[in-house]
């Protein structure tokens, strides 16, 4: 076995406008031809890994910030938010009037008013990423396969992302869910646009170690 290569997606494999450069496709295919294995390692869930990425010819993926690991279609690891945790999260976010979406390998499921509330947030997110046409960003372009009107009490979740009205929303949610991993994205600290909730103790680093163990790969040989 050659090296095991891990590549982030957003801002690395594709730019923040979703463009996949042909040079990246060529490089990955050449690496695999040379005997190396190539995996994407991303915060995205599998439902957000679109065909143009799989068409490159990947060996698999680490998704959901490390909650999901796949090698050639075989699920190596999948640690989910429990159904009880999901119900608590959904009820809490509703009570705070915080719009959100649920991230699973089966799809992205939005809260009732997410599309409306997320529109200015996604424009600001695009501005921060330096998109030339940030003002034309839409929720539909940012989340092309978002499901509206779907079941929100679920047992197949990797993560939950929610729009922050204020940074205090994140602090209060973190206090409310000490049994979960709490984070933010779309900006650092008090200018963050989103909060997120996931399985406690899950990281991309842990997922990489699980995959290397499954492959029988020596981490030292991949440095």
Summarize the structure in words.
It contains seven helices and eleven strands. The protein is α/β, with parallel strands linked by helices. The model has no long low-confidence stretch (mean pLDDT 93). It has a six-stranded mixed beta sheet with strand order 8-7-6-9-11-10. Helix 2 (51-54) links the parallel strand 2 (37-41) and strand 3. The protein folds into two domains: 4-78 and 202-222, 3-Layer(aba) Sandwich (Rossmann fold), CATH 3.40.50.1000; 83-199, Hypothetical Protein, Haloacid Dehalogenase-like Hydrolase, Chain: A, domain 2 (2-Layer Sandwich), CATH 3.30.1240.10.
Give the SSE map:
Layout: E1 4-7, H1 22-33, E2 37-41, H2 51-54, E3 60-63, E4 68-71, E5 74-78, H3 83-95, E6 100-104, E7 107-110, H4 114-128, H5 139-142, E8 146-148, E9 157-163, H6 167-176, E10 180-185, E11 194-199, H7 204-215
Parallel strand pairs: 1-2, 2-3, 7-8
Antiparallel strand pairs: 3-4, 4-5, 6-7, 6-9, 9-11, 10-11
Could you provide a short overview of the structure?
This protein is of the alpha/beta class. 31% of the residues lie in helices and 24% in strands.
Secondary-structure element series: EHEHEEEHEEHHEEHEEH
Strands side by side in the biggest sheet: 8-7-6-9-11-10
Overall 3D shape: globular
Radius of gyration: 18 Å
Distance between the termini: 14 Å
Q: Runs with pLDDT <50, length 5+? A: none
**What's the domain count?**
2
> What percent of residues adopt helix (DSSP H or I)?
25-40%
SS-derived structural category: alpha/beta
CATH architectural group of the largest domain: 2-Layer Sandwich
Q: How large is the share of residues in beta strands?
A: 15-25%
């Amino acid at each position: 076995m050659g090296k095991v290569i891990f590549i982030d997606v957003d801002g690395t494999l594709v730019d923040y406008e979703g463009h996949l450069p042909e040079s990246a496709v060529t490089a990955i295919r050449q690496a695999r031809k040379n005997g190396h294995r190539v995996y994407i390692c991303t915060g995205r869930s599998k439902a957000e890994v679109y065909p143009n990425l799989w068409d490159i010819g990947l060996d698999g993926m680490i998704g959901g910030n490390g909650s999901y690991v796949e090698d050639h279609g075989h699920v190596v690891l999948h640690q989910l938010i429990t159904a009880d945790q999901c119900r608590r999260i959904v009820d809490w976010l509703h009570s705070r009037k915080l719009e959100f979406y649920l991230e699973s390998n089966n799809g992205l499921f939005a809260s009732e008013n997410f599309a409306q509330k997320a529109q200015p947030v996604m424009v600001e997110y695009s501005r921060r990423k330096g998109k030339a046409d940030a003002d034309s960003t839409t929720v539909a372009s940012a989340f092309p396969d978002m499901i509206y009107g779907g079941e929100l009490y679920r047992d197949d979740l990797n993560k939950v992302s929610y729009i922050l009205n204020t940074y205090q929303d994140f602090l209060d949610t973190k206090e409310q869910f000490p049994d979960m991993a709490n984070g933010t994205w779309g900006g650092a600290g008090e200018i963050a646009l989103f909060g997120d909730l996931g399985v406690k103790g899950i990281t991309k680093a842990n997922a990489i170690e699980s995959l290397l163990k499954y492959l029988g790969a020596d981490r030292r040989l991949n440095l």
